[in-house]
Structures are given as structure tokens and as C-alpha cells.
Amino acid sequence: MISSAHGRGRLAHAFLISGAHGSGKENLAARLIQLVNGGGESGGIDLFGEPVVVETPPLDELESGWVRIVRPRMKSRRIGVDEIRDLEQTLHLAAPGGAFKVGVITEADRMNDQAANAFLKTLEEPPQNTLLLLLTANPQRLLPTILSRCVRLPLLGGRALLADGGAELVAALNAAASRGFGTPVAALHLKAVFASFLSDFREQADAAAKAAEKEEVSAYRDGTDGRWLKEREDFHKAAAEAEYLDGRNRLFDVLMAWMADLLRMKVDAGGLDFPESAPALRGIAGSETEARLLQRMEALDSLRRTLETNAFEPLAIEVGFLKAFG
């Protein structure tokens, strides 16, 4: 559909590509860049009459004088207004041969307020032959005025389970389970492993929020009143909480996939999410019934839903793990 719109000269100037980690956002952005600047569609015909398709390179390899890729680079992992202004300068230059100028903002939800407002001006009045691509796993954090000016491309699937601590959690789960499974002691061992990862996520989210708040206070202390700074303090606390909850959800994805692997092994279904864990899990799968494994998965799902309420997190996790792993 995008290729057809481009062929008719009706391509939109701004796309918001959203989806979970691992859903292919950067790959789609790279394919769009190749589309508008004439690469990647076909490499001709081979000796056997089959079309030769040019592979899409990683997004960063496509960066050039007319393709700019903006990523969070500050200590607080935010995108600042200076980076957006640098991007705008490139977009307002004339590209040779009618080439498209492309601006890609990865993790677009990490633009601070000043950067988002600066980018909005370019979004409202884009220079000629400009393509703007915003990539994010959290579109709800973007300004409504930015959302309304982009064609939205939500991608399904994805979360790379072993990324962002997933591999370490799986290894820790395997080690804890090897000491026993299906007893209260084993359940509490697994709970302790999970809680330690949650604690790390909390510390990282709080540190990033404090760094972002410190940058704002340093920049705007003398130019605004205390009420605004207090509002920003509340904003950063909320941002840290949202970041923590996203991390917790990713850990639950890993937990559910790990438990699902036990069920797959029980019924010889194949398609394991963590095939390297098979030796560690084979004994557990052999000793559990299908019905019991399903009950354990339902207990994990119930725990996840409970944590979306105002339940006291440490107690809910302990009770949930006793039901799921005890």
C-alpha cells in the first residue's frame, strides 16, 4: 500500500511506526528509505529467471547527508531540542536530483517537551521532498498534536524475549528450577530471582528520571517559577513509573514464555522460545501433568492482572509465585 501511494505521488510526509520491541520498526523504516530513494526493490533477474531482491541493510547503515537518524543520546536517554534543530537544518537543505530528505526519530516518545514542540513545527510545515518517520513502542506518550499529523503504522508481534535482561532472567530461572520445582521453597527461590530483576528495573527508571529532571532544573531554574518545576518533578516521577511498568511487563512476557516452553515440551509441540533451556526443563516437563502446567500458566496470568490493580506488589508477587511454581 505504501509503495502504491509512492508510485502515485501520494505518499504521506510523516509516518508513526509503533510496536513492541522486536516487531520490526527499524526494518520497516529502512525499507521506506530505500523505497523513496530508489533502492531495495529489485536487483534484476538472475540466470534462472528469478528476481534478485536486494536485502534491506540495518537502519543505521542508511544514514547519510540526506538521511538523519536521531536516537536518545543524553545520560537520561532523552532526545533534546538541540538534536531536533540539527535534524531540521538538514531537512531544509536542497537534496540533489530530487532525492528525499528523511528524518528518522527512534524511541520518539523520549523527546522532551522542548524537542517535541520544536519537531511539531516541522511536522506542520514540512519542506518539499521530506519524509519523517517516528518509531516508538509507546505511542501514547507522544503529544496528541503529533499523533494527529502522522499516518499510523502499528506493527504486531515482536518483543525480543532475550533482550533487556530477558536472557539473564531465563538463566536465573533455569538455575533456580534445577534446585527444585513444585514446592514452596522452589517457588520462593524463583520469586527472589524475579524480585531482584524488578528492583534493577526500578533503580534504572528512577535514575533516568532524576537525570532528566536535573537537566531541566539546570536549564530552566532561572527562567521559570517553582510551580512549573514542581509539575515537571511530578511528570518525571510518572515517567519513571511508566518505564518501570513496561519493564515489569517484559519480564512477565519472559515468565509466560518460559512456562509455555514447559507445556510445549510436555506435548512434544516444538517451537520453543528458549531452546537452549530444554535440557534444564526436560525433567520438570516429564514430572508435571498437562493440566497442572495449564493451572500454573493461569496463575501467572492471574498475577499479572492483579498487579494492574492497586494490590501491594511484593505480597501479590509472593502469593502469585507460590500458586504458579509451588
Automatic annotation (TrEMBL):
Signal peptide: none annotated. InterPro entries: DNA_Rep/Repair_Clamp_Loader, P-loop_NTPase. GO terms for biological process: DNA-templated DNA replication. Pfam families: DNA_pol3_delta2. GO terms for cellular component: DNA polymerase III complex. It comes from the Bacteria. Gene3D superfamilies: P-loop containing nucleotide triphosphate hydrolases. This is DNA polymerase III subunit delta. It comes from Luteolibacter yonseiensis.
